[in-house]
Amino acid sequence: MISAQAAPAADAETRGQAAFGGFATRWALLLSVAGGLALFAAFPPVDAWPLAVAGPGILVLALTGRSLRASFGCGLVFGLAFFFPLLSWLVNEAWYAWFALAAALALIFAVLCIGQRLLLRLRFWPAAVAGWWVAAEGVRDRWPYAFPWGRLAMSQSVAPDVRWVAIGGVPFLSFLVALTGAMIARVVLCFLGGSDPPQTPPDHGGAARRGAARRGAARRGAARRGAARRGAARRGGTRLGAVVAAAVTIGLVLAGGFLPVDPTGGAPTARVAAIQGDVPRARNLPQQLNDSEVTQNHAAATSELAAQVNAGREPAPDLVIWPENATGLDPYDYPFIYALLAGAVAAIDRPILVGEVLQNPQHNVGQLWVPGRGPTTMYVKRELVPFGEYIPFRSLISKFSSLPSLVPVNFTPGRKAVVFDVGKIKLGDVICYEVGFDDLVRSEVNAGANLLAVQSNDADFEIDGQLGETEQQTAMARIRAIESDRAVVYASTTGESSIIAPDGALIEHSGIWQRAILDARVPLVSYRTLADRVGAWPEYLIIALTVLALAWAVLLPRRKRTGTPEGTGTPEGTGTPEGTGTREGAGTREGTGTPEGAETEPPPGAAEPI
Known about the structure:
Layout: E1 4-6, H1 9-15, E2 20-23, H2 25-41, H3 54-63, H4 68-86, H5 95-119, H6 125-142, H7 165-192, H8 206-215, H9 221-254, E3 269-276, H10 285-288, H11 291-310, E4 319-321, H12 335-348, E5 352-358, E6 363-370, E7 374-380, H13 394-397, H14 403-406, E8 419-422, E9 425-431, H15 438-446, E10 451-456, H16 468-484, E11 488-492, E12 498-500, E13 506-509, E14 516-523, H17 530-534, H18 537-562
Parallel strand pairs: 3-4, 4-5, 9-10, 10-11
Antiparallel strand pairs: 1-2, 3-14, 5-6, 6-7, 8-9, 11-12, 12-13
Helix pairs in contact: 1-9, 2-3, 2-4, 3-7, 4-5, 5-6, 5-18, 6-7, 6-18, 7-9, 7-16, 11-12
């Protein structure tokens, strides 16, 4: 049976504070493990999306009553349980890259959890906790190496609430998911003994005050028993209110499924094809990424599609999309590769967007090849993958690993959005990892794209035939489709390739580790959703309000220690000294100099001190 630390009931009821003081530390740590694993299970490949609210809710329960040091420990355990399985696909790249990245993200999460513990002091803590999740994700998206995996919203690709992303973007959906979890945690706390996590400022002379309080306990016994009866009635009302508030929150969040955010009726359409050529199956990464064989596979699959079109079995596509790294050899330096690409374009007689690696400088690009013209406009990947496309601490890592030899020269990032003009198609492109970044996808839509492509190479992260990374990226691509109300063509070297409708539904979908040709007719939408119009402002506003709430939470214990009504300006320590003749029962606790009703230190066992 789970034990909990609790304040003595009579004293807690008299002060109106929570009787529940938090779980014992060992149970809090176990709760943290459970919360991290539950949040992992909300993401692909498990994809149990309702568990996304369990993660934030369980973390609140674990942090309740903790000291700041113990809050760091709970956050670290939660982060390790979450990030290690979520990023397990990195093992094939390098086990130490997986370990270092997951451990670093867990450490950052643990430090930030100290802030969430402070926010639990506030009466409006469920909203503050929801804002904390947005702020924490904002930090991870940008520092120390941009890595946007594990955002709450990205677990909701098939959930009813996912349509909220078209209103306020991914950060707003993360806020709603975290708010739902916090409201459910509030219900649990109410039934455990109070409506709020315990307020536990540092002890400044608390032992003396408690001794004085015990000397006067007998004289106040009758009054306390009456207060206890009144407190029981208030707790019943508080519990009912918490249940109703949580139910309303859940209902409003799920009501996002009824939002009219997909006005695609009457939009022009185009036929697009995605080529999944597959790569050699090898446990050795350099062999698996054999550049010429990968290019030959994609050229052969395109020729197969051309043969079906010429035979009348398939309609001709308006555009063909190859994945990232469809050729890792610069076609300008290798005539054989150039001839392969030119031959594929001639065979299908349609423009092909080809994922290429170019040299001098080294770029990861999507380049449009046009029949009769060859290579034309290119988009250069802007957000590079740390340890994949550039190596931080290269000289240090070279001393114990061969990883830098796989990326002997750091890639150079691009600087701007590019929209490919293919007749009525205005194609915006992001490459692999970039699908996780709100501003990159949004910039393509705001530049005029009416169709989006995500080029990806997932062969790097193969684990015993399973590709957890590509499933997670597919979920992100589905959310991007809904967020911008655009069809998305997700082309991968090995799967899972997909053609996604503007409402996030899969129109075509491949398996993994196989050659696949996907083609479908998709709408070309020029309408911009509210999320694309307001941009990052919802995220900035939520983060700013959370920072203000955190500042208020830091100042709150000082106000409580003074026992002074907010805004009176009475200096700390000016209360009535012990023995100054204050009449017993005249509104002050005996010997404390503190006005009756002001919050003081909880009794021993109520919670760990901060």
